[in-house]
Amino acid sequence: MQENRCKNCGGYMEKDNTLNMYICEYCGTKQAIQIEEKNNYTDPSPLSTGNSKIERIIEISLFVLFKILFPIMVLYALILCFTL
Questions:
Q1: Does one domain contain both 19 and 33?
Q2: Does residue 1 sit in the same domain as residue 37?
Q3: Are 58 and 76 found together in one domain?
Q4: Phi, psi at residue 39, to the nearest 5°?
Q5: pTM score, two decimals?
Q6: Which phi and psi angles does 5 have, rounded to 5°?
Q7: What is the pLDDT of residues 29-72, one digit of tens each?
Q8: What is the mean pLDDT of residues 2-27?
Q9: In angstroms, rounded to a whole number, what is the distance separating the alpha carbons of residues 45 and 53?
Q10: Contacts of 31 (CB under 8 A, 6+ apart)
Q11: What is the number of domains present in the chain?
Q12: Residue 23 and residue 27: Cα distance in Å, rounded?
């Protein structure tokens, strides 16, 4: 957990990810997390390889498989069932 100093009292501010704010432990002052800090998110996915090109290829492949080919195969199977 990242900590900063409170501008009001100098106490430690803890990061609260649910509220997207830093909150002072002593005086309760709240400070919004900057957008660039929120974007420093690391993907906890165990499939993450760190190589964005490979991840993009996998993403496109899965899209083609499940959104395009699978429905076509199901439709083809239904057509075969009803024509037999």
A1: yes
A2: yes
A3: yes
A4: -80, -5
A5: 0.38
A6: -95, 140
A7: 888 877 554 445 555 555 555 668 888 888 888 888 888 888 88
A8: 82
A9: 16
A10: 4, 6, 7, 13, 21, 22, 23
A11: 2
A12: 9
